[in-house]
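Hi R.,

Here's the chain you asked about this morning:
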Amino acid sequence: MLTDKYILSIDQGTTSTRCIIFDSYGQIKGLSQMEFTQICPQSGWVEHNALEIWETVCQTMRGALNNAKININMISGISITNQRETTVIWNKKTGLPVYNAICWQSRQSQDICEDWIKKGYNEIVKEKTGLIINPYFSASKIRWLLDKIEVDDVSDLLFGTIDSFLVWKLSNGKYHVTDYTNASRTMLFNINTLKWDQELLDLWNIPVCILPEVVPTSGISAYCEVFDGVIIPIASIVGDQQASLFGHCCFNMGDAKSTYGTGCFILMNTKDTLVHSKNGLITTIAWNIEGRTEYALEGSVFVAGSAVQWLRDGLRIFEKSSDCENYLRNKTSNGVYLVPAFVGLGTPYWDNDARGAIFGLTRASSIEDVVTATIESIAYQASDVIDVMKEEASANMEYLGVDGGASSNNYLMQFQADILNAKLIRPICLEMTALGSMYLAGLALGIYENIDEIRKMHQVQKVFFGHMTNSERMEKLDKWHTAVKATMQFK
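And the predicted structure, written out as tokens:
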């Protein structure tokens, strides 16, 4: 039986911090959000001020409490979900970062990664961590920071992804921890042995003494002590995409979710089966609950919602992104295909040098056709990822959970269902990262007895079914793949 308890979820994202207070029924009682500075000192570099992020956390926690009209003593626990891979190194004596946090998007450690690849480390990294050598992940960012700073004693330093830094600050420096999902994104954590890997640490020359303790995704791992003597358990730490997977109740083999944000992150639960991809997918830890680790396959589409922003800001077709659906009245792109490789192509192609292209233009082509083709390109890219997932996991996908800003576009969601020939479920609450982390904290606190209780609370806003004929679907996919191949040829 659920009781009227409250969990404060800290959702620390790439461009903003949100704090959301949920009741035990998954209803939002209070929300506060603040953006923070994106620091870009050079082309391709993206940094954050970790202390500014900490300040946004403090302010949004208080803002959420005020909006909910709830006293801090009424909070049963705190959950943290965060932008993954973003790397902070700080001095444990002063509590101050030694440099800006290096964002997951940043490419400033590209040369380090290229050197590691030349040395032939790719296979050992993939086998041990499920990842590829790429500046996306934390290891090369750590090496870059250690090479840049001057320090008398490296044992004075601590490394963490954003979750670790926040826990350390919330606990007044008493806990230096991370969870399994975040650890699995560092390129230093062995997802087979579930330990920091000494061989990889030696290869990168990274001292083990700066690393956090790895704790369960759901479990009381630290205590918040910043609220004037009120001590609150931190009951869940989880990377944002894994939090979304849990929030969508993707608890069975083959269950998958797609988050349509700036890019598109797709995860499929593979339970206790560790699937090593041969076609560009990443293998990662989905979560660790009560000593049991489950895994996921992950694919990344670089351009999703940002394609709509390009229509708005680059081509100036409309003033607000929400106006996009006004250009989709014809329900067809009339043979126009757009490949939005503005920053290269992600899974399963991994072509960093590809650039965007439009195909199939005729004298009769219109702005509406280009807008429709842009929206459809998001669905095509997601379909490419999901097809590889289903094949490599040997799993049937019963449904695809969807969230993120672009999931509110009904045309996109229907076309996605059509091109996948699958059921899409759009929940009422689109705050999936915060909701998922709250559910995980609720399990640790005993608010929920098991995941079945959580599944029963899952509220659906709309379900989309595929209605396209098989022949039409195959024809469209063939033309899309032809367009992608042509794009990759143009360098």
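DSSP finds 14 helices and 23 strands in the chain.

Let me know if you need anything else.
M.
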